[in-house]
Amino acid sequence: MADQRAGRGPAITCAALAKTFGTGPAAVEAVAPLDLTFAAGELTALVGPSGCGKSTVLRMVAGLEAPSAGTVTLDGAAPADLQGEGALAMAFQDASLLPWRSVRGNVALALKLARKPVDLAAVDAMIARVGLAGFENARPAELSGGMRQRAAIARCLVTQPRVLLLDEPFGAVDELTRARLNTDLPALWQAQGTTALLVTHSVREAVALADRVVVFSSRPAQVVADLRVPDLLALDSAEGRTLMAEVTAALSQGWADDPGSGRHAAQ
Ligand SMILES: Nc1ncnc2c1ncn2[C@@H]1O[C@H](COP(=O)(O)OP(=O)(O)OP(=O)(O)O)[C@@H](O)[C@H]1O
Fold first, then answer.
1. Which CATH class is domain 1-79+196-267?
2. Nearest residue CA, atom 12 of ligand 1?
3. How far is the CA of 263 from the centre of ligand 1 (A)?
4. Shortest CA distance to 49 belongs to which of 262, 192, 238?
């Protein structure tokens, strides 16, 4: 039952979603039963201690990892259905570009795989948008790590996905470029009405980019705080600093032994 409005992202619902890797004494419970809904067209940042299960949640939303229990639905559809429509895009930290293809070739391929018309002007415009104008013909090996990440982001956004899943996509990008991408890219996906999830270790990035910040406890991931980011929040305002302090406090609380003791704030 996909959303009929053109291009608009679906709501994402995780219902009693859980994941345990392995069995017996060696089993690792990565995600305890989790109930979370991400609103259509919103960008939600997921933050939490290293190894708490953030990527696992993202991979289950992407349909790359089967849940041990519970479900993920996107406006009622399974992740695989959106994958099939080319409506779901992901960028991971390790920016896996095809090494034998140019930047232009990699970005254009995303359109082909999504069964969309390959418009080279749109491809080059997206490459310019992530600051890679002039590198259209470069192969990934000729780019820095940060440039490869930017090319991977261009590859994601060129298809105008309805769902965008970003796992530390700016990890290898320097501060200046990151600041530029942080101001430039949200406008792109907001205009497209994309529903986006962003896993990040940066509280500043989470608050700067997201409409909502969900803070997880240490493994298995459970929600310890769920905070709304006011529109047009200035990070250096008193309100911005207070919100970042709240996220940071929830993160330290998330490291505590009793993850269930957290609070569930704004929705
Ligand atoms: N394929 C797998 N097989 C076995 N264990 C796994 C697998 N993937 C993840 N895990 C385990 O699940 C737990 C959660 O991992 P996950 O990558 O989701 O955490 P994360 O919060 O994204 O971590 P980080 O912030 O460090 O990237 C970890 O203990 C990890 O070792």
1. alpha beta
2. 30
3. 24
4. 262
Span of 74-78, 174-178, 221-225 with lowest mean pLDDT: 174-178
Residue pair 9/55 in contact by the 8 Å Cβ criterion: no
What is the DSSP code string of 106-160? HHHHHHHHTT----HHHHHHHHHHTT-TT-TT--GGGS-HHHHHHHHHHHHHTT-
Closest ligand 1 atom to residue 56 Cα is: 18
pLDDT at 265 over 60: no
What is the distance between the alpha carbons of residues 147 and 35, in angstroms, rounded to a whole number? 36
C-beta atoms surrounding 59 within 10 Å? 20
- Do the strands 43-47 and 212-216 form a parallel or antiparallel pair, or are they unpaired? parallel
Alpha-carbon distance of 36 to 195, in angstroms, equals: 14
Domain boundaries, the chain: 1-79+196-267
ipTM of the complex: 0.96
Q: Ligand 1 centroid vs 229 CA: distance in angstroms?
A: 27
- The closest-lying atom of ligand 1 relative to the alpha carbon of residue 31 is 14
Q: Which of 14, 17, 20, 28 to mutate to test the pocket of ligand 1 (most atoms within 8 A of CB)?
A: 28
Angle at 53 between CA 50 and CA 57, to 5 degrees: 135
Which of the pair, 142 or 175, is modelled with greater confidence? Answer: 142
What is the rounded average pLDDT of the residues 120-137? 93
